[in-house]
Amino acid sequence: VAVWCPQGQQVSCGHIVTCAGLHSDRLAHISGCSPQPRIVPFRGDYLLLKPEKSYLVKGNIYPVPNPRFPFLGFHFTPRMDGSVWLGPNAVLAFKREGYKLLDFSPGDFLDAVTYSGLWKLVLRNVSYGLGELYRAFSLSAQVRQLQRFIPEVTTNDVLRGPSGVRAQALDSEGNLVDDFVFDGGSGAVGSRILHVRNAPSPAATSSLAIAAAIADEAQRRFRL
Length: 224
What we know:
Blueprint: E1 2-4, E2 10-12, E3 16-18, H1 24-30, E4 38-49, E5 75-78, E6 84-87, E7 91-92, H2 106-113, H3 116-124, H4 126-137, H5 139-147, E8 158-170, E9 181-184, H6 187-190, E10 193-198, H7 208-222
Parallel strand pairs: 3-10
Antiparallel strand pairs: 1-2, 4-6, 4-7, 4-8, 5-6, 9-10
Helix pairs in contact: 4-5
């Protein structure tokens, strides 16, 4: 299998494991896999706790997750540099790599809004979606969520922070996929590729257990 890099280099290998995140469905599809599940991007915006208020948070604080929406729920995350991140929310991103509010891609937007799975999800959860959208624009609404855990936090204690984009796998019935999805293409090239189309989140980013699961799957599929 030959892989061409953007800089023009060619890398030859016997097998490939892809973990393409926001583009995992597209990459899998062009190698002969099913277009399902589709990736729908959701942007999560964080707040930052002002340094003089960091004493309020002694460790990670997470809400009990709602199994219908595992990615919803504000949490408090102290970081190695001493900063404390608060959030995130979850709103539809208008670009697969849309880390800013006004980022927009016509192709990515149409890809999302013409997908029946997204509409089924939205129509089943209109109130949740409107609530998330409102909190995306209202700082006070976000702070009220935080006050459920630490009542002392006020709007004067927080700043707008960075954003991330979640590559949410969504099936055609509008169900959020929250387990592993491994896939392989067809033909002489596609059969040598293992696509990791979805992995459990959160706590998956640096998980050695998940790395072991992917290695086991590659060994099984490729008979290594």
